[in-house]
Design brief:
Blueprint (H helix, E strand, L loop, with lengths): L1 E7 L20 H17 L4 E3 L3 H14 L3 E3 L16 H7 L21 H16 L4 E5 L1 H11 L17 E7 L2 E9 L4
Parallel strand pairs: 1-4, 2-3, 2-4
Antiparallel strand pairs: 1-5, 5-6
Helix pairs in contact: 1-2, 4-5
Length: 195
């Protein structure tokens, strides 16, 4: 049984910036501080490896953890956030104002697929495939994104994808999974006591 430490990257946008992901942004100074605190916590947990999405905010978070744990970071593009296509960089309000039917996506991500985007189930499978590979191997820290990690976790737990939005994964928080042959057992969800 391997341990997976799932981490949503540290703060890269102000908390009141509610745009859907799109730009490849760096951590804010507050996010850099969060990443250092998270890294100190994870060092004490003794991970064996560190993996990160190729997005700048995830890599920077993982690099802080790698420095504290004296481990290299393996960058895996498959850990990217869901591709929101034409909605990327726009707010929920702007998306729904332009197309009221779009509101259905934010209740059930399988109700529709945003124009030019990746279907939610495809994104969930993409990230879950990486988590399964790492979980059935050495385990370690996985630094990714709120949307894609939630969807993958919901899929792994046999939940409908509509329930994924009910899983809270805040920036620089850690969730701990024991990965078994039958899939993940959630030990801790969204712990931010280090902050």
């Amino acid at each position: 049984m391997a341990k997976l430490y799932l981490v949503r990257h540290a703060l890269a946008r102000e908390a009141d910036d509610l745009r859907l992901p799109g730009d490849d942004v760096s951590l804010l100074p507050a996010g850099e501080a969060q990443a250092r605190l998270l890294a100190d916590r994870l060092r004490d947990m003794g991970p064996s490896a560190i993996y990160a999405s190729d997005a700048r905010r995830a890599r920077q978070t993982a690099e802080a953890i790698g420095l504290a744990c004296a481990l290299p970071v393996t960058v895996l593009p498959a850990l990217r956030e869901i591709d929101f296509g034409d909605w990327a960089g726009r707010t929920y309000e702007a998306v729904v104002a332009a197309d009221p039917a779009a509101a259905a996506y934010f209740t059930d991500p399988e109700a529709m697929t945003p124009p030019g985007s990746e279907p939610a189930r495809d994104g969930a499978r993409r990230v879950l495939g990486v988590l399964e590979t790492i979980g059935m191997g050495p385990g370690g820290v996985v630094v990714g994104h709120g949307g894609s990690l939630r969807l993958a976790l919901a899929l792994a737990l046999g939940m409908p994808l509509a329930a994924a939005w009910r899983l809270r994964l805040d920036c620089a928080h850690v969730s701990v999974l024991d990965w078994t042959a039958a899939g993940p057992l959630v030990e801790v969800l969204n712990d931010g006591c280090h902050l």
